[in-house]
Amino acid sequence: MKGNEAFAEAAIRAGADGYFGYPITPQSEVMEYLMAEKPHERTGMVVLQAESEVAAINMVYGGAACGKRVLTSSSSPGISLKQEGISYIAGAELPCLILNVVRGGPGLGTIQPSQSDYFQSTKGGGHGDYRMIVLAPSSVQEMADFAGLGFDLAFKYRNPVMVLSDGAIGQMMEKVELEEQRPRFTEEEIIKNTPWATTGKTKNRERNIITSLNLDSAKQEQHNIDLQKKYKLIQEKETRYELINCEDAEYLIVAYGTSARLSQKAVDLLRNQGIKAGLLRPITLFPFPTKAISELADRVKGILTVEMSAGQMVEDVKLAVGCRVKVEHFGRMGGIIPSPAEVVEAMHKKIIGG
Amino acid sequence: MANITKEEIRKPENLVYKKTDLLTDKALSYCPGCGHGTTHRIVMEVLEEMDIQDKTIGIAPVGCSVLAYDFMNIDMQQAAHGRAPALATAIKRLMPEKFVFTYQGDGDLAAIGTAETIHACNRGENIVIIFINNGIYGMTGGQMAPTTLPGMKSSTSPYGRDTHLMGNPLKMTELVAQLPGTIYVTRQSVHTPSNVRKTKKAIRKAFENQKLNKGVSFVEVVSNCNSGWKMTPVQSNKWMEENMFPFYPLGDIKVNTD
Ligand SMILES: Cc1ncc(C[n+]2csc(CCOP(=O)(O)OP(=O)(O)O)c2C)c(N)n1
Ligand code: SF4
Ligand SMILES: [Mg+2]
């Protein structure tokens, strides 16, 4: 299956109630797959092509506020448009799933894969102090797995979750194992699981209001303090990463998504040359594996981050490392995927010999 | 009459009018005489009479009525500026058995939210849209709205709306009436008791229409904004009759509910 299709199928199986999207390359297969699958007949899931990404994310807001498992997908220019809605969703503490199959920018950029949306995904993106949980798949299997995981985390923390993929993983074909169909929640279950949801004010409870507005500054500050507490808890509990050949590593690569795949090959090439290289692959970009990187920084001689961007994640790696060892970035932009040989060369030039 | 006590007047058998329980006890934040308050009351009375409080989800806009959820005793969502019809679309599709309505001002519905309004209407979402047209941005201090009349003064058209420079007012209600997805489109007002009665009938019909499952019911309420227009409530109602109604004539525009 293609990565995008695996994500779509996994979303149905995760018991999604609704998908709202707008076509954009390289992720249009998500909605195409959903429309072809007729999830309305399979599970009762609603799939709607909206008039814009702005409308789509606000449909997600409306659905999420009813306690429904709703999602949207897009690619970079569309995600920029969704940022207002994401800020409202974060402010109103609504759970939802957003897939970003990143393409190169800025502007209309290119339809080829890129990782230049790290900033707008992990640092807020829209207005105000908020964070999304960001999951970075590096295989078609993870595209599928992170649909279900994303929903679970979103509901656990009442927070938007972004699956930050890229055009290469979205389009790539791999074998994938899918979870069994989870039943969609009934109205009774929704009322029990998400008692805050707008399901209609019955006599036995106060009305439910979903809003991000607090005209009273003291209340709004308290709301922000509570949000920050939640983000801190997420950092403590939900940080995920993978270590490859790090036990004896002297030189470390930090890379996620497509860059992690080719960096793993680069690690093999470096090891063939007798260089003890290892890879740390962040799986969650927020929360970022700061502690794991910091610990490795005490043991390695230098760190190279590999990103298909001008260097965005490298800032977080540097924050984790401080000045203990050298941290350099290597990347290609504009939709070009670097080769493992280029990564090896960069390791030599920027870290080992530099 | 002179020696009737207050207690006597308040006896249940003497009651002629009672605030609906679907309005909260919170004092309305609107300027005295503003049409928002009256329209809130009518919508809540309709929901009470239809006994659908437990099945209704309302959506507040960005505008003076952003805090509608403080006054309406029902489950409500607050939407980003202009996006209420997108929220309503999802809510109704995910919970078709509920009654869903948006409550929006003219800036919200006819400027920043034009796309969401037109597409929700064109798709024929089975929702109610209540549209408060006061020809101005009340909330932000009286700037020009898409609905501001030609020649009408506002803080961003201080010499009057020059249609060559600033474009023409948008008749959104006539526009959505053209779309196949609307089944009931009407324009009303709430500045006199008889108009209040008509508007209430229209809003009742709009909510009843949701049972038909056939498309959008769209109720415009031409309303005053005495603060934004810099008039007293009485002056503003007179000005509305003389200037707004000729441009925005009251009455049904489309009734396609059979
Ligand atoms: C994205 C965005 N742009 C601008 C604003 C500022 N704003 C708040 S209310 C409003 C105008 C509301 O006017 P209208 O919809 O006519 O409602 P009224 O207050 O007249 O009832 C504007 C421009 C905002 N809150 N969000
Ligand atoms: S500013 Fe205008 S619309 Fe807002 S409450 Fe006052 S009169 Fe009503
Ligand atoms: Mg207005």
Tell me about this structure.
The complex is a heterodimer of chains A (about 350) and B (about 260). With about 350 residues, chain A is α/β, with parallel strands linked by helices. Chain A has two domains: about 5-185, 3-Layer(aba) Sandwich (Rossmann fold), CATH 3.40.50; about 240-350, 3-Layer(aba) Sandwich (Rossmann fold), CATH 3.40.50. In chain A, about 45% of the residues lie in helices and about 15% in strands. Chain A is built from 14 helices and 13 strands. Chain A has helices at about 5-15, 30-35, 40, 55-65, 75-90, 120, 140-155, 165-170, 185-195, 215-240, 255-270, 290-295, 315-320, 340-350; strands spanning about 20, 45-50, 70-75, 95-100, 135, 160-165, 210, 240-245, 250-255, 275-280, 285, 300-305, 325-330. In chain A, helix 1 crosses helix 2 (about 30-35). The longest helix of chain A is centred in the middle third of the chain and has 22 residues, at about 215-240. Chain A starts with a helix and ends with a helix. The model of chain A has no long low-confidence stretch (mean pLDDT about 100). With about 260 residues, chain B is of the alpha/beta class. Chain B has one domain (about 30-255): Thiamin diphosphate (ThDP)-binding fold, Pyr/PP domains (Rossmann fold). Chain B has eleven helices and nine strands. Chain B has helices at about 5-10, 35-50, 70, 85-95, 105-110, 115-125, 165, 170-175, 195-210, 225-230, 235-245; strands at about 55-60, 75-80, 100-105, 130-135, 135, 145, 180-190, 215-220, 250-255. Chain B has a seven-stranded mixed β-sheet with strand order 2-1-3-4-8-7-9, sandwiched between helices. In chain B, a hairpin with a 5-residue loop joins strand 5 and strand 6. In chain B, helix 2 crosses helix 9 (about 195-210). The interface of A and B includes residues 17, 18, 84, 199 and 211 of A. Strand 7 (about 210) of chain A pairs parallel with strand 2 (about 75-80) of chain B.
